Structures are given as C-alpha cells and as structure tokens.
Amino acid sequence: MDFIPQLLDFILHVDKHLALFIQNYGLWVYALLFLVIFVETGVVIMPFLPGDSLLFVVGAMCGAGLMHYGASVALLLAAAILGNQSNYTIGHTLGPKVFAWQDSRLFNKKAFDQAHAFYEKYGGITIVAARFMPFLRTFAPFVAGVAQMTRTRFLLFDVLGGTLWVVGIVSVGYFFGNIPWVKLHLDKIIWALILVPGLLILAGAWRSRSKDRKHKASA
Asked: Contact at 8 Å (CB) between 53 and 134?
C-alpha cells in the first residue's frame, strides 16, 4: 500500500525528484526519462505514469540549463514512438490469441469488424488526440493493434502524434516553466494536466451515451 502514496508524491513533485536524480546520477537521467515514457506508452498495464507533467518539467529544466533541449526532445520522442509501436504490436499479436477468434465465446466477429473499420477510418485522429489524454494514450495503440489497424497507417499517426506531444509540451515547459508564478503553482498545474483531459473524456463519453439513448428512443 506504500506504493500508491509514493507514486502520487512522485507525480505531484516530479520536478524535485528529477532535480535530485540529476544531482546524484547526472546523465543517467536521460535513460530514466526514456524508460518512463517508453513504459507509459508501451506497456498497457502502466497507464498511471506522469507523461504530461514529466515532459513539462523536462522542458523547464532544459530552460534552466540543467538538461539539453535537443537531446531531451530527440530521446523522449524516440521513447514515445517506440512505446506506441510496442503497445500496438502487443495488441496486434496477443489480441486474436486472447479472443481465440471464432472458437471463443469472447470473440464477437461483428464487434471486431466494427472496431477495425473505425480504426481504419478514424484511428488516425484517435491516435494523435490520445497522446494528450492520460490513460487513453496507453490504451489507444493497444486497441489499434487488437483492431488490426494497418501498421503503416498506425506508424504515420504515431509519429505525428508523438511529435506534437513531445515537442509541444517540452517546448511549453522550456519557455514558461521557469516563470516564478508557474514554479510556485506547479503542483496545481500538474493536477490540471491530469484532471482536465480526464474530465473532457468523461464529458465526451456522457454526451455520446446521451446521443445513443436519444437515437434509440426515437427509433
């Protein structure tokens, strides 16, 4: 049970933990950052790692001269893209085996065909948008793999979404992370990075469900 408070403390005070790690281990911080981003995006059971806040803090540290901006962006972008590719591969490889295809009661051919069609038509924007949504960015590539989204199409939007996510948030941290007001309220900013996307997801799901109910009622 001690793991949860420690994880929450790391997420909310990632700036202090990262600064301490740099002080103690120097360049090994780049390996740590690569691992965190890769695991968050590449292992479907690890959706709770602090992706957005970590990128922001890394940008702030680059702006303060504690880390190299170009090296950080390149490394984190590689981790984000490779992580999604790993997650997609897991879903693409294990999904059919888990469902055992037509021989399993868990497999619904119609639902699978619908998911595949959705990801072929709308999967691109889903993969890009999910980058900015905690939890969703971990599950979206896995689901894309299970739905058998075309690998080349997935790769295209994986690179696009990863670039917008990493370069965008690191750059925001680089230019604004060392402003005194931002540093003073960093914990609140981190909470906002976690909660606001989650609330948007819930609002979207509620609106979609409401539309479905109205459609069924009018049918």
From this structure: no
**pLDDT of 70 over the 90 cut:** yes
* Tokens standing for residue 68: 């190299």
Name the residue among 164, 171, 162 with its Cα closest to residue 69. 171
Cβ atoms of residues 85 and 120 within 8 Å: no
Which residue bears the tokens 């979206």? 140
Q: How many structural domains is the chain composed of?
A: 1
Range of the domain at 108: 3-51+68-168
Give tens-digit pLDDT for 139-173: 888 888 888 788 998 999 999 999 999 999 999 99
The span from the CA of 95 to the CA of 107, in Å, is 10
DSSP code per residue over 137-168:
HHHHHHHHHHTT--HHHHHHHHHHHHHHHHHH
Instruction: Note the pTM of the prediction, 2 decimals.
Output: 0.76
> Residue 159's closest CA among 114, 124, 113, 183?
124
